[in-house]
Structures are given as C-alpha cells and as structure tokens.
Amino acid sequence: METTADNTIRASEELFAKTSPGRLFVRAAIPGAAGMLISSSYEIVDGILVGTFLGERAFAALHLSIPIIIVGFALGDLIGSGSAVPISISLGKGDYEHANNVFSFACVLNVLTGIIMGILLFLGAPAMMALMGAEGEFAELATGYLRVFSVFLPITTITYSVDNFLRICGHIRRSFFVNVAMAITGALLELFFLGVLHLGIWSAALGYSLAMIISVIVAFWPFFQGRMLLKFTMPKPSLDTLAEIVKYGMPVFLETSSGRIFSILMNTALVRLGGEVAVSVYGIIMTVQSVAVMLIYGAIDAMQPAVGYNWGARSLSRVKALEQYCFASAAIIGVAGFAAVRLFPEAMVLLFLPQADSAFVDMASRALELFSFSLLLKWLSFSTQSFMIAVGQVRLASFVSVAMVLIFPLAALFALWPLGLDGLWLNGVATYALCALLSAYVLVRFRSTVRERLDRA
To answer: Fewer CB within 10 Å, N or C, the chain?
Structure first.
C-alpha cells in the first residue's frame, strides 16, 4: 500500500526528472519569477508609500537603511540557498534521511542566526548611520526603520528558506500564493499605518515584518502537519552538515552581503557628494533595478531544485536543456528592462516622489538613463552564478559572486570617481561589463571540465 510520502516522492520525481524542460520551465520558473517579484515588491511599495506620505527625506532614510537590513537577512539567505542544494541533490540520489536532517537543521539555524543578527543591528543602528555621514532627523528616521526590522529578524529571516523548501517539495503554486499574500498583506498594513493612522517611517517596517511572520506560519503549516516530502526530524548537528550548508550557500551569501556592503559604501559616497538628494536618486535606481533582478533571480532560482536533482541523477542532457531556458529567459528580461527604463524614466521618478521638483526629476531621469545599460549585461552573471550553485561548483559561483557585487563595483567606484555623480550612476554599467567577460570565461572553463570528466569516464 502506498503512503502519502510515497506519492509525494513520486510526484517530485515526475516533475523534476520526467516533465519536459519547456513545460517544467513554465510550471516552475514563471511562477517563481512572479512570486519573487511580488514577495520583493515591498521595496517598491515601501518606496512609493513612504515617498508619497512622508516625503523626500523619509524616502532617502528608507534607502539609507535598506542595504543594512538586507545584510541582516544575509545569513538567512545563506542557510536557505545552502540547504536547498544538498537537499535537492540528496533527493535525486534517494537519500531522504540526509535531506530531512539538513532541512531540520537549517530551520533551527535560521532562528539562532536571526536572534544574533537582530541584536547586533538593533544596538548598532545609531553608530552605523553616523559612520555613513547621516545626521539629525535624517539619521533618526533611518535608525527607527532599521530597528523595527531587527526586532523581528529571528522569525522573518526564515522566509528565504521556506520558499526554497516549498519548491523542493514540488509545491510551486503554494510558494507563489504565499509570496503574493505576503506582499498584499504588507502593502495593506503599510498603507493603513501611513495613510490612515499617519504614523512615522518605523510603521512601514512594522507592517511588512508582520506580513512576513504571517507568511512564514502559512508556508510551514503543511510541514508541521507532516504532509510534505521533507519531514521534520530531530536535527543531528554536525560540523559536516554545517560545512555543507555554508559551502553551498556561500556564493549567495557573498553576493548578498558584499553587494549590500558596497551599497552602504555607495550611500556613504552619495551623502558626501550630493547629500539626501543623491541618496534618493540612488534609491530610485536600486528599486527600479530590483524589478528586473527579481524577475531574473526568481526564474533561475526556481529552476535550481530541478537542475540540482538532475545533476545528482547524472542526467546531463536535461541539465543542459533546463539551463538553456534559464539563460534565454534572463536575457529577455534584461533587454525588456533596458527598454522600459529608456522609454519611461520620468514616469518612474514621479512614481516614487510625485511631489518632486523639476530639477530633481531631471537629475534622477539622467541617472536612470545612464544606469539602464547595465540591464543589458547583468543577466549573464546572475544566470552563471545560479547555474554554478545548482551543480555544486561553489568555488566558481563564489568567484563570480564576489567579483560581481564587490570587487568590480569598488574598482569602478574609484575609477569613475573623477566624473562625480555621473561616475556613480555609471558604476553598474562598468561592473556588469566586466562581469559578463568573467561569466563567459567561467562557463567555458566549466564546459571543458565536464567534457574531460566524461572522456575519463
């Protein structure tokens, strides 16, 4: 007699190993991209609501603190991505005991790291703002926003992991609808706090933190009931399991943390070169960029379990077919994003700051137009990094990540500094031109390595 677990295992195998690559892409990547965009839309909604109800200074404070908040979530991202790869590969090999142990250990690890990061950010918020050059009301607004997020980190940081766990278990639609519900709930709470109760910027952080907590509970509910492929077990903590999670999650962690560290440095430079106005312009650029990035990342990240499963099962032809869809879709999104920014720069500026004067609109529109060229290039490095993670090539993925979000941006920052603010707006273009060359090299090298192994086999 077949059990529920047997049916779940067979459904997962049917989805990852037998569904045609094109159909699998439609079922996984499209909802994944939409879900990631919607779940990350808090940055967009946050910016629109704060800019509309609280004005330019609050908008600048929001974007001064967001990179630090994302650093707070970085360990959760490491655990989510780092556990997803060995879980997927273990399931492909039929090792369900190891998959369940990594899953259970990752959940505990998320809570512990959330507590540590929450305490550090809450206590360190004022000093961080001072180091970035923020003063007075500007610093107070950013500190208040950051501290509210830090209080809820022990629970909210697991959001990144549970999304991966749902997709691994084949519950792609549930993942999508949880993300949609989280975004809608967060937007409604924030609108109520800012637009109806007329509370301060701290309430924007409160609204979305509450929405994330609700979504975590809903997402984990079928796991608590034992109805999923992955089962809670008493974790068997070991240095080997921890090393495995860190190994596979390090590329994403390095990308997230290093990228936000660079954003912090960038904001520091902006405060000194252009003050709150320049930080606001950069906030618009980062928010617009996040739309394209989340679509790309959501699509290729949703395919990681399938790629990892087939890599573990040594089905190289399916791995190749799945990645062709990933790279092609990422390129299409990049080109579409470039076209949208070039056609509607002023409309994008006024979406976030409808009361901005003409001088600000002109400055921000020019910055967006310069930045837009990076969208033609960045899809290649994102796709390459995701592919390397899915097949366990951690060193190559880490190499691409660090270069993409820290080494190349810092080099461009110093090289383009003489151009003033225009140099800062062009930073992304220079960075992703270098990243495209590096990614092409990594792909060629990996292809040669796989061929050599096949020849020896």
So the answer is: N
pLDDT single digits (tens) 145-172: 999 999 999 888 888 788 878 877 777 7
Under the banding of pLDDT at 50, 70 and 90, the label for residue 77 is confident
The angle at the Cα of 206, spanning 199 to 208, to the nearest 5 degrees, equals 120
**Under a CB-based contact definition with an 8 Å cutoff, are residues 185 and 45 in contact?**
no
Question: Per the domain annotation, does 5 fall within a domain?
Answer: no
In the predicted structure, residue 194 carries a pLDDT above the cut 90: yes
Total count of residues recorded for the chain? 457
Short-list 279, 289, 282, 281, CA closest to 373:
289
* Tokens found for residue 182: 């989280």
Alpha helices, DSSP H only, in 303-377? Answer: 304-312, 316-343, 345-352, 358-371
Number of domains in the chain: 1
In a domain, residue 3? The reply is no
What is the pLDDT at residue 261? Answer: 79
- Which residue from 171, 204, 163, 177 is spatially nearest to 51, judged by alpha carbons? 204
Average the pLDDT over 291-308 and give the result. 79
Write out the two tokens for 18: 């037998």
Nearest to 43 by CA among 194, 186, 197: 186
Using alpha carbons only, what angle is made at residue 46 by residues 81 and 110, rounded to the nearest 5 degrees?
A: 25
Place of tokens 């519900």: 181
Residue identified by tokens 């618009």 is 284
Cβ-contact 219, 76 below 8 angstroms: no
Specify the pLDDT at position 12.
Answer: 58
Considering only residues 354 and 171, tell me which one the structure prediction assigns the higher pLDDT: 354
| pTM given for the model | 0.72
Residue 1 lies in a domain: no
- The H or E element spanning position 400 is helix 394-402
258 touches 345 (CB < 8 A): no
Q: In the numeric block, which tokens belong to residue 417? A: 């500094």
Q: Give the structural domain span for 340.
A: 18-449
Closest listed residue to residue 389, CA positions, set 442, 330, 336: 442
Gap between the Cα atoms of 254 and 192, Å rounded: 36
User: Region 17-30: what's the mean pLDDT?
Assistant: 77
Does the residue 12 lie in any domain? no
**Residue 452 has what pLDDT?**
62
Backbone torsions φ then ψ of 9, nearest 5 degrees: -60, -45
Looking at residue 206, its pLDDT comes to 93
Looking at residue 1, its pLDDT comes to: 45
Residue holding tokens 């047997």? 6
Residue from 18, 104, 25, 23 nearest 304 by CA:
25
Query: How would you class 96 by CB atoms within 10 Å of its CB: exposed for 0-12, middle for 13-18, buried for 19 or more?
Result: middle
Residue 454: the pLDDT is 55
How far apart CA 338 and CA 428 sit, in angstroms, is: 13
